[in-house]
Amino acid sequence: AGPAGVAAAHDLSLLGHDVTILEREAEVGGMLRYGIPEFRLPRDILTLELHNALRLGVEIKTGVTVGNEPGQVPLAKLHEDYDAVLLSTGCAAAIDLPLRDDRKGEAARRTGNVEYGFDFLLDLHRGVPKTVGKRVAVVGAGFTALDCARVARRLGASEVAIHIRTTEEYIPVTREELFEAKREDIRMLGLRTPVALKAGGDGALASIEFVRNRLGGWRDNGRRLAVPIAGSEFNIDCDTLLVAIGQ
Q: What pTM does this model have?
């Protein structure tokens, strides 16, 4: 019941089909509800738009997960019960953070006070209590990174900085979103890439090691390459790291 599923259900219902949406979350909306903070997408507006899209008799079943694990509905069962099945499950997994000696990103998952921004926002909007430290670093350059930074500020962080590989001129967000983040005293720190996480004696994050970059040529998507500068490594102390490098 995310944007694709809702849009398809709306169009199919207009064509006269009986449509059932199966949604694993407690409410419909997908990333609109669980990924985007309320200060950017007010929930009363979202609820109205979803109602308008699904009001022609679409049946909605929440709390239903399709899969092969116990308690889940097998895809084969859907083929038996329905004439057609549309899969619109989205990109529900964060991209791992590759580091210098950890290309698979395992360090980010075993170090305390480090979370992937995608999971951080999902848990938050599911009602899971979230906390951050006083000094929060966000790694990433998109809307999720900005959302994580602004949420961290609302959770009480006194220092919030977004660390990006190139510069803010080349990140894929709107000028308005950048303005709103800066108005909340969130710093944009460019030309750096994280290469190592350093934990304290308690296993929690103590600092992040970065390497400085210079701008290179152009990538196929129209953004600039970030070229690491040999021997330019430096460290920043940090209490919480939110990784938002895509999904």
A: 0.92
Contacts of 169 (CB under 8 A, 6+ apart): none
In this structure, what are the phi and psi dihedrals at residue 174, rounded to the nearest 5 degrees? -80, 155
- Helix-helix angle 3-14:43-54, to 10 degrees: 30
Q: Cα(104)–Cα(132) distance, rounded to whole angstroms?
A: 25
Distance CA 149, CA 36 (A): 12
**In angstroms, rounded to a whole number, what is the distance separating the alpha carbons of residues 39 and 143?**
13
Query: And the tokens for 236?
Result: 């920043």
Helices (H) and strands (E) in the chain, counts: 8, 11
Structure tokens at 140: 């990433």
- Let me know: does 78 contact 230? Beta carbons within 8 Å: no
Q: pLDDT tens digit string along 106-131? A: 999 999 999 999 999 999 999 999 99
In order, the DSSP letters of 19-64 are -EEEESSSSS-THHHHTS-TTTS-HHHHHHHHHHHHTTT-EEEES-
Residue 228 near residue 98 (C-beta atoms within 8 A) = no
In angstroms, the Cα distances linking 202 to 22, 79, 102, 103, 113 are 42, 50, 21, 24, 11
